[in-house]
Write a structure and sequence with these properties.
The chain is an alpha/beta fold. The protein has two domains: 158 residues, TPP-binding domain (Rossmann fold); 82 residues, SIR2/SIRT2 'Small Domain'. The longest helix has 17 residues. The radius of gyration is 18 Å and the shape is globular.
């Protein structure tokens, strides 16, 4: 396995690239107080998130699923972007200021903290917890109200609204996936931050980048399936590793 690197090595990789694609996962927002799905803090009551974030669970007990999402919305509303979110927004500014510079942020997170930190070119692979979609007519809208009223929320057509996120067993939005695959294929450097690299098809994006000649950098405190093929591995939390980059400039 590649040894852990120093922040200076990470900066060297980043500073040498004009086309960067970043994939972020739950580990980035965990340090803002947003629970991860797979960690011990991911449990809610006696339910596993994997048993709640499914179309079947919503069809079976929409009130239970909405209670969980209402709890998450309250947590996320109170959360603030951390040093990793802010560093990625800074990196985007640096890269796009270069002639021909390209920067795309692909995220599996649904919390919107990247946008609040100032990131602009964000592709939400798994949707947004602040978007609602009608389970009857399909109409979508943004709603940041906490608490939701009425609860559970309903559409003007009287259909039950659901969170505008991608649940287990559902395909990614076609447009977002196309954007993500294209950005991965065109990147000179692909940075993977705070993701288990287990959830498909997002986990295949680093492989697409690598197959097209990109250098692969991983920031994660624990090994993942990507670690063996990464060109640079930083065994650190996202906020610690990327936060140090902000002090360099």
């Amino acid at each position: 396995m590649n040894p852990p690197t120093e922040p200076g090595d990470l900066e060297a990789f980043l500073s040498g690239a004009k086309s960067i694609c970043v994939l972020t996962g739950a580990g980035v927002s965990q340090e803002s107080g947003v629970p991860t799905f797979r960690g011990a803090d991911g449990l809610w009551r006696k339910f596993r998130p994997e048993d709640l974030a499914t179309p079947e669970a919503f069809a079976r007990d929409p009130l239970l699923v909405w209670e969980w999402y209402a709890w998450r919305r309250e947590l996320i509303q109170r959360a603030q972007p951390n040093a990793a979110h802010l560093a990625l927004a800074d990196l985007e500014q640096r890269i796009t200021a270069l002639p021909g510079g390209q920067f795309t942020l692909l995220t599996q997170n649904v919390d919107g903290l990247h946008e609040r930190a100032g990131s602009r070119n964000v592709v939400r692979l798994h949707g947004s917890i602040w978007h609602l979609r009608c389970s009857r007519c399909g109409e979508e809208r943004e709603d940041r109200s906490v608490p939701l009223d009425p609860f559970p929320p309903r559409c003007e057509c009287s259909g039950l609204l659901r969170p505008g996120v991608v649940w287990f067993g559902e395909p990614l939005p076609e447009s977002e996936w196309s954007q993500a695959a294209r950005a991965a294929a065109e990147a000179a450097l692909f940075l993977v931050v705070g993701t288990s690299a287990l959830v498909q098809p997002a986990a295949s994006l680093p492989l697409i980048a690598k197959q097209n000649g990109a250098r692969l950098v991983e920031v994660n405190p624990v090994p993942t399936p990507l670690s063996e093929m990464a060109d640079c591995v930083v065994r650190s939390t996202a906020a610690e590793a990327l936060g140090k980059l902000r002090t360099i400039h």
